[in-house]
Design brief:
The protein has 859 residues and is of the alpha+beta class. It contains 21 helices and 30 strands.
Length: 859
């Protein structure tokens, strides 16, 4: 073993001893309180439970023993009352809203966008097939009949996914065997006026069951239906039903319409309320384990389990999450007023409760700590120092193109850093953690497709025309309007993204640490603005170089530490990953967006767009001394993509195995995209976690600084210098710096505004709309380079049509977003050629050196 390797391992082992968080600690807990009890002294079991319009908790029907307990001869009574709990001015109020058509209990109830749906149920003598939709408005409940079940059923279970209700199990009669029935009903289409009915689905595997846990949740590839535990009922020779408490669970894949078995629950959780939490967890509150089944304990029954168990759909593991103050079964858990609510139910056999339990999941945060703050401060100071060092800019050629003095390897690292945003830094490990390596081939398209095309076509165009922005090429190829339109499109695209570039990583850091979100935003925004303002492209590129080193170095250390912390090390990661198909690259199923050849094909268009038309990337080609070194920077960037992709994909798979072994270490309240930042703070040593958080800062600042400098270049070169060509170079340089400051202030202010206003969903919608221009923008470059027929007017019409087509595809089809780039490029190219026929074509002299054909002839 070489000395350097020994030192690296020694550092890793030493750092691991400094880990500040216990890997076995429960990282989330529940904060409990009671809402006003339902206005009934006994309370109800088996009631219809749901939430309407996010502001009314509906409880209807149910059963109890009002006269005496069952062991004293009490008779079970079924009810039809409808109650609603509402909140106004921080005050809760119960409302009695009439009655149902029938006395009913033990139906399956589901909260939907259209109201609360009750499916089946019974009155003790009969089971029903009725399905009912309850809606709440202005203090009133309306009841609407839905298509009935094919057979009467009660004690079944239901959930909803993408507007479709799924119903499973149950009994067809009060004294009948449990069933394995599995049905679906497209409520969304029904409410839109379509004529739909219940559809038979592949039957439940395993034993038939009642009172199981059922939920819709994702597993990394898409949404699935989960059915867990419950109780099998089978009529014995004496005519009595014999119960068998079950622990097994199954997943129904909504894409393939097939069942597969999942990990058994630690104990039976029959009749437990449950709820889907976050992006990959199913929380199960207590339940009946069956350990006391058949015993006549009367009032001495100790009650049901108080353990809160969580099933993670990605790692396929169970772990204990907390303890209930009181266990309530034969009821449902719902989200109401921002909390998980468990209303009424049974606390012991035959004993109901009017209690409405409410809890919130409190996610733990880790202290960032003094040492980590010092590490982050050193990094930020170093970044600022680079800006100061390169502050001697004399003209816009220096400010935008670094005087064409950048070495090829530095330009290469800068291109890489510009493309690898902080979101990617977190999202790639999260994707492989939750799914597999299918999308690995997208990044391979950089070296297989993007690098050859860019080096063959685009770099020669930009270098030989001696442009500052790519959009100058469009004026030479088409006309000034196309140039200005493309530059404006790019500017809007970047402005739309810059606030998000700061905001999302700041959210991720704040979610897992006690670092103030405003501090994160201001630190990234102000420092990035300062060093870009002072040093221009030269400062941007050299900080990119440092940031890429920090980012990749920190990622490598993370991977080594995860390997060390996994019981069994690298061999275990490989074996467990392989056994769970986490390394899958080739896929030949029905999902075309995961099929290997389609991933490569669609990835080709996705990666070609930024490398051919994004000024932030193209500017890097122009900072080297000549065409040869520019191509060298592109090829080396493409080669760097391979090991870096392997590194980040490997981190995701290693995290999967780590959390499969340590499921209690996961933070249930976080989205899957935060799994890597959470691991950084939860399980990495002091100082190392500071480096990794600095890596997130680095990736964000790299993207932001490149965007600011490139937008400044577009504004000054394509607009200011284009229309006011006789100003002094000093004036252009001052304007460039002022635009940079304006963009920095704007992006930082946008991020701070998102924090205060909580309009991130609206901002996402805005950036999606602005993002539609990306395909059209790249399409203009493809059209110009690969078509001799295309002209300016045809190009403008094609760009407009492409934006409309992409808007339609995005909002009115179910096509995967991978397809957008190919549609945009193809649309612009096809329509550009079609409409150019109606206008005067350019002469061969005008096209000289501006298309691939003339370029090849010159070679």
């Amino acid at each position: 073993m070489r000395l350097s390797t020994k030192w690296l391992l020694a550092v890793v082992l030493l750092c691991n001893t400094l880990t500040i968080a216990s890997q076995d600690a429960n990282v989330s807990n529940f904060s409990w309180q009671n809402l006003p009890p339902i206005p009934d002294a006994e309370g109800f079991a088996g009631a219809i439970v749901g939430v309407c319009n996010n502001n009314a908790l509906i409880i209807a029907g149910g059963s109890n023993f009002p006269e005496a307990k069952p062991w004293d001869g009490g008779k079970k009574v079924f009810y039809n009352n409808i109650f609603a709990l509402t909140k106004s001015e921080n005050q809760y109020k119960w409302n009695n809203l009439g009655t149902l058509k029938n006395n009913i209990a033990y139906s399956a109830s589901v909260s939907t966008d259209w109201g609360v749906v009750s499916i089946g149920g019974g009155d003790g003598q009969n089971c029903f097939s009725d399905c009912l939709l309850l809606t709440y408005s202005d203090g009133k409940v309306e009841q609407k009949q839905l298509p009935a079940l094919p057979n009467p059923s009660w004690f079944g279970l239901a959930t909803i996914a993408d507007g479709v209700i799924y119903y499973a199990g149950g009994q067809n009669s009060p004294d009948g065997n449990s069933t394995s029935e599995f049905l679906s009903f497209d409520l969304k289409s029904f409410m839109a006026g379509a004529k739909v009915d219940w559809q038979q689905m592949p039957a439940l595997p395993g034993q038939s069951r009642v009172l199981a846990v059922m939920a819709a949740q994702t597993d990394g590839f898409g949404k699935n239906i989960y059915v867990i535990s419950g109780r099998n009922l089978k009529k014995a020779e004496d005519g009595n039903l014999t119960p068998t408490f079950l622990k097994d669970g199954y997943r129904f894949d909504l894409r393939t319409k097939t069942w597969s078995q999942i990990a058994d629950a630690p104990v039976s959780v029959c009749a437990a309320p449950s709820i889907a939490s976050g992006q990959s967890n199913i929380i199960v509150f207590g339940g009946d384990s069956g350990s006391l089944s058949g015993q006549t304990l009367k009032e001495n029954h100790p009650g049901f389990s108080k353990d809160i168990l969580t099933y993670n759909t990605i790692t396929n593991t169970w772990f204990k999450t907390g303890t209930l103050p009181v266990s309530q079964v034969t009821t449902s858990a719902v989200m109401f007023d921002g909390s998980m609510v468990i209303p009424c139910g049974e606390i012991k056999p035959g004993i109901r409760t009017p209690v409405i339990s409410s809890c919130k999941l409190i996610a733990a945060k880790r202290s960032f700590g003094v040492i980590n703050y010092i590490v982050l401060a050193i990094y930020l100071a170093f970044v600022l120092g680079i800006g100061l060092f390169f502050s001697d800019q004399k003209n816009t050629n220096d400010f935008f193109l670094a005087g064409k003095s950048i070495p090829w390897w530095a330009a290469s690292l800068s291109i890489f850093g510009t493309q690898l945003s902080s979101i990617t830094f977190m999202a790639i490990p999260a994707k492989t953690f939750s799914a597999d390596w299918t999308y690995f081939m997208i990044n391979m398209a950089v070296i297989l497709i993007a690098a050859p095309i860019v080096c063959l076509v685009y770099i020669p165009f930009y270098r030989r025309l001696d442009v500052t922005t790519a959009y100058e090429y469009l004026e030479k190829r088409f006309n000034v309007i196309v140039r200005l339109l493309a530059s404006l499109m790019f500017t809007l695209l970047m402005i739309g993204r810059m606030g998000i570039v700061i905001f999302l990583p700041a959210i991720a850091i704040t979610t897992v640490t006690d670092v103030n979100i405003n501090f994160s935003i201001l630190a990234m925004g102000i420092l990035c603005t300062v060093y870009t303002f002072m040093g221009g492209t030269k400062a941007v590129i050299w900080t990119d170089v440092m940031q890429v080193i920090v980012l990749l170095g920190g990622a490598l250390v993370s991977l080594l530490l995860i390997i060390h912390q996994v019981d069994g090390g690298l061999a275990k990661i490989i074996s467990v990953g392989a056994a769970n198909a986490k390394f899958s690259i080739a896929y030949n199923g029905l999902d075309l967006t995961r099929t290997t050849w389609m991933v490569i094909f669609l990835g080709m268009f996705s990666v070609l767009i930024p490398y051919s038309s994004d000024q932030a990337v193209i500017q890097r080609y122009l900072t080297t001394k000549d065409e040869k070194t520019a191509k060298k920077s592109m090829w080396s960037n493409a080669l760097l993509v391979i090991p870096s992709t392997i590194l980040f994909f490997a981190i995701g798979t290693a995290l999967y195995v780590y959390y499969k072994q340590n499921p209690a270490g996961m933070n249930m309240s976080l989205k899957t995209d935060s799994v890597f930042p959470w691991y950084i703070m939860e399980s990495l040593p002091i100082g190392v976690s500071g480096v990794l958080i600095a890596g997130i800062f680095a990736a964000a600042q790299s993207t932001l600084s490149g965007s600011m400098n490139s937008v400044s270049a577009a504004v000054i070169t394509d607009f200011y210098r284009r229309f006011w060509p006789n100003h002094s170079e000093a004036k252009y340089l001052l304007a460039a710096r002022l635009v940079t400051v304006f963009l920095g202030v704007l992006s930082t202010a946008m991020a701070l505004f998102m924090v205060k206003s909580s309009i991130i969903s609206l901002w996402d919608a805005f950036t999606e709309i602005i993002g539609l221009i990306g395909g059209a923008l790249a399409g203009l470059f493809v059209l110009g380079a690969f078509s001799k027929r295309a002209n300016g007017k045809g190009a403008l019409i094609a760009a407009a049509i492409t934006i409309v087509i992409l808007y339609y595809v995005q909002n009115y089809t179910h096509l995967h977003f991978f397809v957008y780039a190919s549609i945009g490029l193809a649309s612009c190219f096809v329509f550009g050629n079609i409409f150019s026929v109606f206008f005067k074509p350019a002469s061969n002299e005008q096209l000289d050196g501006l298309t691939i054909y003339s370029l090849l002839q010159k070679k």
